[in-house]
Specification:
This protein has 309 residues and is an alpha/beta fold. The protein contains seven helices and eleven strands. Strands 4-3-11-9-10-8-7 form a seven-stranded mixed sheet, sandwiched between helices. Strands 1-2 form a two-stranded antiparallel ribbon. The N terminus is likely disordered.
């Protein structure tokens, strides 16, 4: 997600509320919640970025964007799916005011995509607060079994996390470290013969071809260990995949830690990030034939869909 835009928007919401005196009256946040001017708060041991009020118009535009991508790029042989990743606030009801009307946000997106031929995959029941890092917005790769089951049930694959070996790094502090999160936690990434054999062609970082970029663990964005972080376009060849199927993922940063787990099921996975690439340029780099296509975006993107180009 675009944190600069997201934090600024959330910060404006908090500033307006402060001007009304709600914060001083104790009516803005639940007891024990510690907000700051960037819309960051803590609850139940987690640092969280407030989503703010649900922008159903943005969710409707999100649906229109996905339908346009399908119409402009996909063929009749592509199978298309979409899944929305809830932010942590979804699993903290009652912890922050104004509360996000997640039901309205999802309904606007789902309603716009009804009858589009893009099949919905519901992830809300496949996750819990504990499946996210405490100091970061992202989900934990090693806790995605239920997500994989939901995706695989719709898309026709099966992934067993027992087929991977966990590599755990201690001392991880995620993106909220800059806002005061200072209690380290662990980060685990999952490796296998499949992930070791896979080769990444990364438009942003052409000299690095591995799935896991372990040098990123010592940077200020250690989550970028997964596929080296943000990039307009990444193509991963997986020579040890069990099938000759291909997958295209239109994505934000949540897909970075999910996609390595799919390399045993797809011989080629292409990740497209239209926050950084105008969608009209996609045909210059990618030919659509009969690939599976997954639109995977967090609620942060759905609520700020103008960033999709």
């Amino acid at each position: 997600m675009n944190r600069k835009v997201g934090l600024a928007a959330a910060g404006l919401c908090l500033a307006a509320a402060a001007l009304l005196g709600l914060a001083a009256a104790g009516g803005l946040f639940a007891p024990g919640v510690r907000p700051d001017e960037n819309g960051i708060y803590t609850a139940k041991g987690h640092w969280v970025e407030a989503l703010g009020r649900a922008d159903t118009d943005s969710a409707a535009r999100f649906a229109e964007k996905l339908k346009a991508l399908k119409a402009d790029l996909l063929t009749g042989q592509n199978r298309a799916f979409y899944a929305i990743v809830p932010d942590k606030g979804y699993y903290l009801p009652g912890e922050v005011k104004p509360a996000t009307d997640y039901a309205a946000l999802f309904a606007a997106a789902d309603g716009g995509l009804a009858g589009s031929g893009i099949e919905k995959i519901d992830l809300t029941g496949a996750l819990a607060l504990e499946d996210y890092y405490r100091t970061d917005s992202h989900w934990r790769q090693e806790r995605l079994s239920a997500v994989l089951e939901a995706l695989g049930g719709a898309m026709g694959f099966s992934v067993d996390l027992d087929d991977f070996d966990p590599v755990t790094v201690e001392g991880f502090i995620g993106a909220y470290g800059k806002y005061g999160a200072n209690e380290p936690e662990s980060l685990t990434y999952l490796v296998s013969g499949v992930t070791d054999a896979a080769v990444c062609d990364n438009y942003q970082y052409p000299d690095f071809t591995a799935v896991y970029d372990t040098a990123r663990l010592s940077t200020d964005v250690p989550y970028d260990v997964f596929l080296s972080g943000a990039s307009p376009l990444i193509t991963i060849e997986s020579p040890l995949a069990a099938t000759d199927r291909e997958l295209v993922v239109f994505r934000d940063s949540y897909a970075s830690s999910l996609v390595p787990l799919l390399l045993g099921q797809y011989c080629r996975v292409t990740l497209v990030d239209i926050r950084y690439m105008v969608s009209g340029l996609v045909p210059q780099y990618l030919e659509f034939t009969d690939q599976d296509v997954l639109f995977l975006y967090s609620t942060y993107i759905v609520n700020q869909s103008a960033m999709l180009r």
